[in-house]
Automatic annotation (TrEMBL):
Domain Flavin reductase like residues, every copy: 15-167
SUPFAM superfamilies according to UniProt: FMN-binding split barrel (SSF50475)
Residue ranges that the Swiss-Prot or TrEMBL entry lists as coiled coil: none
SMART domains: Flavin_Reduct
Domain of life: Bacteria
UniProt protein name: Flavin reductase
């Protein structure tokens, strides 16, 4: 059963689960990819509810988000450690991670990118701003701990156009 909620109605629960692993889905031109995320935030900016997702330019998802201008976030309520591990350790360029992780997809309400059909929080997002991180603007500690390879994230600010819980 799907229940529509305000974007921040279960934000605390969502952030708690997100820190242990959730899913970002991107799609364009008949290709759909799911990647694992553990970093992100809910906010209110530019008079809109926003989910900020971080995606490295080296990721296949980055290509799809750039092409489509949208993404979805699925934060599972149940244990999906195996699927999170698969989606976080393989590339969508050469692996169908949806099949490998045995994920079922569900059409979104307001955008073209699907969500994962699992109990949890789901956010449909349209990009309203993107910002490429740079070494010059990043603290030394963050650079040394998170960017030793130099693959700095693109920050995607997605307007949350629909949010719901699937029970």
């Amino acid at each position: 059963m799907k229940k529509f909620i305000a974007y921040n109605e279960q934000a605390d629960r969502g952030l708690d689960i997100l820190s242990r692993g959730a899913f970002l889905t991107s799609a364009h031109n008949g290709k759909t990819n799911v990647m694992t995320i553990a970093w992100g935030s809910f906010s209110f900016a530019w008079k809109k509810p926003v989910f900020m997702a971080m995606v490295r330019p080296s990721r296949f998802s980055h290509d799809l988000i750039e092409a489509s201008g949208e993404f979805t976030v699925s934060i599972p309520f149940s244990d999906m450690k195996q699927a999170i591990a698969i989606c976080g350790s393989r590339s969508g360029r050469d692996t169908d991670k949806i099949a490998a992780a045995d994920l079922k997809m569900l059409p979104s309400e307001k955008i073209n990118t699907p969500v994962i059909n699992t109990p949890g929080l789901h956010y449909e997002c349209k990009i309203i701003c993107r910002q490429q991180m740079t070494p010059e603007d990043t603290a030394e500690l963050v650079k040394s701990e998170c960017y030793a390879s130099g693959d700095f994230h693109t920050l995607y600010f997605g307007e949350i156009v629909s949010s719901y819980v699937i029970e």
